[in-house]
Specification:
Number of helices: 5
CATH class: Alpha Beta
CATH architecture: 3-Layer(aba) Sandwich
CATH superfamily: Gcn5-related N-acetyltransferase (GNAT)
Bound molecules: coenzyme A
Number of strands: 7
Largest sheet: 7 strands, mixed
Number of domains: 1
Distance between the termini: 25 Å
Helix content: 25-40%
Length: about 160
Amino acid sequence: MIRALTGADLSAYRAMWLDGLRRTPDAFLLTEAEAVGMTDAQLIARLEQGTIFGAFVQDQLVGMIALSRGGPERLRHMGDLGPLYVHPSAQGRGLGRALMQVAEQAARDMGLLQVELCVDATNHGAIGLYKSCGFVQIGLRPRSVIVNGTPRDDLLMLKQLDHA
Ligand SMILES: CC(C)(COP(=O)(O)OP(=O)(O)OC[C@H]1O[C@@H](n2cnc3c(N)ncnc32)[C@H](O)[C@@H]1OP(=O)(O)O)[C@@H](O)C(=O)NCCC(=O)NCCS
């Protein structure tokens, strides 16, 4: 079951986010220290926007994806996807794809024309998933992030919703 998370999901959301950060730090932008430093109020405000979706198995949160709409008027037609995370115990069962589909439908329902995402250039599993969901690579940002002193490249991927 996949649904939009709310402030009531705060503790499960925070726990899963930290779990993902520790297991696959390259899949997240924020560091663990930055994530831990986010206050409950900040996270509840984000959750209450209704655009972070959670996948549940037997009432346990096992996966999530976030959709963020552009803020300035000239970016209001765009959305950013991510982070996307499925707990290892639930991977390989179609939840990642299902979360992508729910987020894409939410973007369509909001009237967004296109959705972008960034993915570590070596994350071949996620890149394969995104391509099969209709995302195309529009660039490679060198030195996109510096992780513990090591630069890493990101692929920039885009899906135009009115072309699909
Ligand atoms: C990427 C991730 C979200 C996929 O979740 P999942 O629930 O296992 O994915 P699904 O079961 O829906 O699989 C969807 C497709 O992705 C592909 N895929 C997923 N993980 C893969 C891997 N490690 N290697 C190769 N392909 C993979 C499969 O080809 C699958 O295609 P299929 O439906 O034709 O079989 C999950 O592996 C994860 O959370 N990884 C760590 C965090 C991460 O990398 N997030 C993305 C950051 S941009």
